């Protein structure tokens, strides 16, 4: 009989999602220190309305425990396939304010900004939500001051819906945000448009092209 640690390790491997450069896997207890250090950076934390600042190891440990509970949603940390460095994280979970969908959030550690990792993480998380998670609609709230995140959302097919105010733990008050939405049917169309066709006109569906299920800011 497998012990609990072995079962958890195998379960993590089965949930790992691979992109061109990254492995997105479930967070583990041993990730807490590096996770806390990355989010405690005020330039990262201030763009994430759902995290406090300062962001301590205890906060990271609490998020990790939530992220390993499927009732919370689906959380991933993104690590380099090359050296295992933590580059960022993402999650999608049932929305508390939009009962018809899931909320999506993602971030990239500052030293990896400007290298396209935000788009890569977002694409993989979106693909997981619609492909493996059975989600019908994804919502994304972007602070109006966060132009790079807005560009990532738009590149991923999100459509602007409206503006509003949300409570930000890091800012300790309400901040203006833009709400974007991505429907499953739009995602399916974007994927279909990416299909190459053979000479006989038959299409080969590449979904999910950037990721494989394993057992920019």
Automatic annotation (TrEMBL):
Pfam families found in the cross-reference section: Acetyltransf_3
Domain N-acetyltransferase, first and last residues per copy: 22-187
InterPro entries according to UniProt: Acyl_CoA_acyltransferase, GNAT_dom
Entry superkingdom: Bacteria
Any coiled-coil regions, as ranges: none
PROSITE patterns: GNAT
Identification of the protein by name: RimJ/RimL family protein N-acetyltransferase
Organism: Kaistia defluvii
